[in-house]
Specification:
The protein is α+β, with helices and mostly antiparallel strands. Helices cover about 30% and strands about 25% of the residues. The chain has two domains: about 60 residues, no CATH class; about 100 residues, Nuclear Transport Factor 2, Chain: A. Strand 2 and strand 3 form a beta hairpin.
Amino acid sequence: MSVVSGESLATIRPGGDMTRTPKRWITGIWGITVIVILTTGCGRFTTPSHHPRSGVPVPSASSSVLDDGANLYTPGPTLTAAPDDAAAAAAAFARAWARPTLPASDWWASIAPLCEAGLAERLRTTDPTNVPATTITGAPALTGSATTDALTFAVPTDAGVLTVGLIRIPAGWRVASVDFTANVASVHS
């Protein structure tokens, strides 16, 4: 038996199941194709090279986040030992960081000059009372790979290990990343 409404849209078979006609199959395939194109970006529109209002260049999808018009960052040669001034910078930061009793403005003022500008701004809103360590218990130890302009130190504290990533800028070594791993004993106390 056929259901007729202008054209035959479906055929009802004995037992009640419906089968699609070729017209419905083609419509369904086109619909799926359009959805796939839109969701995968194959049909994306091109973007202007400049913002329409400000005239500021708009980065393309192929431009690098690190590309500020100058050459892209190229890491320096690999080191087998850390320079003394880098280890001193990591230790100075760790000592300044592990002072949770300072007022927030004083705490930030002591660590900001030791950081690269982006990290200094991110740390501006840190509440030092949340810093778990109060004492540095050992010397910074070089961890992972190190180059002449980027390296990482692990600094032991009374509450765990402070990991300090440094980069060399013209003014010297600056902290670019910070992470803390609490001692198991200090987590449970």
